[in-house]
Amino acid sequence: MSLRRDIHSAFETIAPPLGGMPERVVQTVLADKRRRRNEKMLVRLRAPLSLVAALVVIAVVAAVLVGGRLAQDWNVFHNSSPAGSGGTHVSLAALESRPLQLPQVAADAQCPAGPVSSTGVFGNGPFYGDPGLASGPRQTAWGIYWNLIGETDRNISGLLLIRAVDVKTQQKYVFVGQYAAGAVAGTDQLSGATVTQRAELVLDAAHQPNRQRGGLTEWPFVIGVPNGNSGCYGYQIDGDSFTETFVFDVNA
Question: CA angle, 46 as apex, 41 and 52 as ends, to 5°?
Fold first, then answer.
């Protein structure tokens, strides 16, 4: 027997007990490589993850700052006056909170009509009452209704709140139809139709009617005065930066 055959025989003798060992060695080596590869990937990802976290924090802070600025700009836009109006307008609620400054006149006293301008209109502006433009009256079981036209300067801005009271009886007058606003005072039948009586007349300078006369804007409206009135009509007009009053004597 040759030396080569003896060596082969010796290997063949010990080979069966090794069954599967080479495969296990290979698997162990591969597993070790995968573990090392994962550790390297983890090390590589640590820095980017911290960077992502920092970017997230920066994004949140930026969103808060930008959101706050947007909210502030939104509030400024909605609470400010239109361009060219000259300032922030007083709200209707603020105008309504102003107390009436009309005089209280005794029943047997003379009606303190005025002030009257040189052109014959009542008031010093920017709202004027022109009795020459009145038409009516229309009588109902409740009282009398007059078709009137108020006039305003063209350059007014904001809202104008008009309230009317009998300065002798202290009866509050009402408004119906166009520009009538405020609390509902009641209903009535006028010219065959049911009308809602309201306590105020509100004019919006941003929506002036296309009615001009002598450089003034005309606002047609209907006022109702209850039965038992004295005919001594007191008007109070409140706007952004003014309050004006005048008294009109329907019996004059």
Answer: 120
Enter the pTM of the model.
Answer: 0.66
Q: 87-138, pLDDT tens digit by residue?
A: 589 999 999 999 999 999 999 999 999 999 888 899 999 999 998 889 989 9
What is the distance between the alpha carbons of residues 59 and 149, in angstroms, rounded to a whole number? 60
Report angle CA 77, 80, 83 to the nearest 5 degrees: 90
Helices (H), the chain: 3-14, 21-79, 92-96
The model's pLDDT over 125-157, given as tens digits with 9 standing for 90+, comes to: 999 999 888 998 999 999 999 999 999 999 999
Whose CA is closest to 246, among 105, 123, 111, 95? Answer: 123
Contact 205, 86 (CB under 8 A): no
Phi and psi (nearest 5°) for 30? -65, -40
Residue in the structure block whose two tokens are 């490589």: 33
For residue 160, give the nearest of 113, 225, 206 by alpha carbon. 206
Query: By CB neighbour count within 10 A (0-12 exposed, 13-18 middle, 19+ buried), where does 96 fall?
Result: middle
> Could you give the angle at the alpha carbon of 172 between the alpha carbons of 166 and 176, nearest 5°?
115
